[in-house]
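Whiteboard transcription, Tuesday session. T.W. wrote the C-alpha cells on the left side:
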C-alpha cells in the first residue's frame, strides 16, 4: 500500500520587513534583498516554494527565489496608486511551506516631481463693476498638483499687479483659498478689459508650473457682494441614501437690488469627483446627491461653493459632508495556504490552513468573529488581526474518521449581521498504528484418522 503523507510543521512564523523606493522605477529594478531582510537561509525561499500573497489584483512587486530579492514587476505610479494619501505603501505577505510560515512586507513608495500644477480651465472670466470698492475679493480656481510633499503646489503669482493683488488664505484642511483682491479702483472708460496671468508653482527640483488666463470685463455699479450666512456648512448622510436626496441647503444674501442682487450658486471643486456625486441648484442653493457614495472609498467630502451676483461679485463657503457607514459588506474569507491531506499521527497544533479575513465596513460593521463546528478535532487560532490558522487540537484516528468537512463561518457585528462561510475538506492518511489481531486466543478441531493429506480441517 502506497501511503501519501502531507505534514505541516507546527506553527506559522510571523515577521515584518520594510523597504522604501521612488515611484516610476523601471521594470526589473531591485527593491531589496528579502533573504537578508528576514534573516533567512539563502536556500529557504526555494525549498519553501516562497511566493507573494496579496489581496489586490495588481501585483507591482515580484519575488526572485534563486537570487532572494524583490524586484519591480510593473511601473509604479504613486499618484494612481495612492492619490493624495501619504505615506503611500504596498502591503503584501511572503508565504513559505514546509514548515508553513508567512512574513509581512511593506514597500513605501516615495514621490518624484513628475506632475506640474494644473488648472481645470485655461481661462477664467469675471465681470466686475467699476464701482467695486478697494478690498473687494474674487475667488480664483485653485491649481491641483498630483505630487505630494516638497513636490506639491507651493505658491501662486499674479501678473500684472496694477489693479489686483493676490491673497492666499489657509484652510483648516491644509489647502489654500486663492483670492484676487482689488487694490486700485477700476475705470471702465479708461480700460474696459483687463487680462491677467495666474501662475501656480510647485516646490520640486526642477520646478514645474502651470498657468491660467484671467479675463476681466469692467462693468458699471454693483457695489455689494453676496454673503453666505455661514462660512462652513455640515451635513451627515448615510452611504445608501437614494439619488435625488437633498443633503443640505446653502444660502447667501446680496444687498443690491434687481439684477445686481440676483445670486447664482455653483460648485467650484476641480479635478476630483465632487461634481459627479453632488450638484447645487443655481437658484435656491439646494445641494442634491446625484451619484453613489461608498463609505469604504470616501468617508467625507468637501464641497466648495460659490455665490455670484450678475455684477461679477462673489463669496465662497464650504460644505463638509460626513458619510455614515451602513453594514453593506460581508466578511471576505481568503484561503492563504491549505493542506488537503494530513497524517493521523500529526502532532497537536499542526497548522492545516492559513486564512485571511477582511470586512470593508468600519466600526462594529467591520468587526468580524470566526468559528467552526464543535465536532471536529480542530480549532481556530488568530495570530494577528484578520489572520487565522486552523490547527489540530486533539489526536486524529483514521480508523474512526477518514475525512472531515470543516465549515468555517465569519460574522460581523453589524445590525443586521452579515456572514460568509467556507467548507474545507481534509483527508486523514493512514499510518501503521494497528497490529493484526486474532478473533480468539485458541482454536480446537477434531478429525478422523487415516485422512488424505491436504484435507481441510
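and on the right, the sequence the group agreed on:
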Amino acid at each position: 500500500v502506497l501511503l501519501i503523507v502531507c505534514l505541516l510543521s507546527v506553527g506559522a512564523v510571523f515577521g515584518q520587513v520594510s523597504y522604501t523606493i521612488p515611484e516610476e522605477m523601471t521594470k526589473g529594478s531591485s527593491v531589496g534583498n528579502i533573504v537578508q531582510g528576514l534573516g533567512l537561509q539563502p536556500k529557504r525561499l526555494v525549498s519553501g516554494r516562497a511566493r507573494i500573497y496579496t489581496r489586490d489584483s495588481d501585483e507591482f512587486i515580484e519575488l526572485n527565489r534563486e537570487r532572494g530579492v524583490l524586484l519591480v514587476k510593473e511601473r509604479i505610479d504613486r499618484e494612481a496608486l495612492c492619490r493624495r494619501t501619504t505615506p503611500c505603501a504596498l502591503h503584501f505577505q511572503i508565504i513559505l511551506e514546509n514548515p508553513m510560515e508567512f512574513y509581512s512586507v511593506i514597500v513605501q513608495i516615495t514621490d518624484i516631481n513628475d506632475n506640474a500644477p494644473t488648472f481645470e480651465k485655461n481661462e477664467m472670466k469675471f465681470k466686475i463693476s467699476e464701482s467695486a470698492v478697494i478690498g473687494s475679493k474674487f475667488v480664483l480656481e485653485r491649481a491641483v498638483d498630483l505630487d505630494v510633499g516638497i513636490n506639491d503646489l507651493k505658491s501662486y503669482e499674479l501678473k500684472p499687479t496694477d489693479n489686483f493683488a493676490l491673497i492666499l488664505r489657509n484652510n483648516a484642511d491644509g489647502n489654500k483659498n486663492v483670492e484676487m483682491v482689488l487694490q486700485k479702483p477700476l475705470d471702465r472708460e479708461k480700460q474696459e478689459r483687463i487680462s491677467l496671468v495666474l501662475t501656480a508653482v510647485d516646490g520640486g527640483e526642477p520646478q514645474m508650473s502651470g498657468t491660467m488666463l484671467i479675463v476681466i470685463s469692467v462693468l458699471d455699479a454693483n457695489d455689494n457682494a453676496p454673503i453666505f450666512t455661514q462660512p462652513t456648512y455640515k451635513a451627515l448622510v448615510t452611504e445608501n441614501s437614494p439619488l435625488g436626496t437633498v443633503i443640505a441647503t446653502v444660502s447667501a444674501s446680496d444687498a443690491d437690488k434687481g439684477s445686481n442682487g440676483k445670486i447664482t450658486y455653483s460648485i467650484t471643486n476641480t479635478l476630483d469627483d465632487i461634481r459627479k456625486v453632488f450638484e447645487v441648484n443655481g437658484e435656491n442653493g439646494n445641494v442634491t446627491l446625484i451619484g453613489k457614495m461608498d463609505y469604504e472609498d470616501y468617508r467625507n467630502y468637501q464641497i466648495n461653493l460659490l455665490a455670484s451676483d450678475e455684477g461679477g461679485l462673489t463669496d465662497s463657503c464650504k460644505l463638509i459632508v460626513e458619510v455614515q457607514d451602513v453594514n453593506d459588506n460581508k466578511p471576505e474569507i481568503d484561503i492563504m495556504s491549505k493542506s488537503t491531506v494530513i497524517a493521523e499521527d500529526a502532532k497537536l497544533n499542526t497548522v492545516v490552513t492559513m486564512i485571511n479575513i477582511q470586512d470593508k465596513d468600519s466600526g462594529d460593521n467591520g468587526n468580524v468573529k470566526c468559528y467552526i463546528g464543535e465536532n471536529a478535532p480542530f480549532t481556530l487560532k488568530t495570530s494577528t488581526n484578520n489572520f487565522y490558522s486552523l490547527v489540530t487540537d486533539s489526536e486524529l484516528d483514521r480508523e474512526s474518521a477518514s475525512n472531515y468537512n470543516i465549515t468555517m463561518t465569519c460574522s460581523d457585528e453589524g445590525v443586521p449581521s452579515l456572514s460568509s462561510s467556507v467548507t474545507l475538506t481534509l483527508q486523514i492518511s493512514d499510518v501503521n498504528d494497528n497490529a493484526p489481531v486474532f478473533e480468539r486466543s485458541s482454536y480446537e478441531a477434531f478429525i478422523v484418522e487415516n485422512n488424505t493429506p491436504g484435507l481441510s480441517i
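Someone added at the bottom: The two ends are 32 Å apart (CA to CA).
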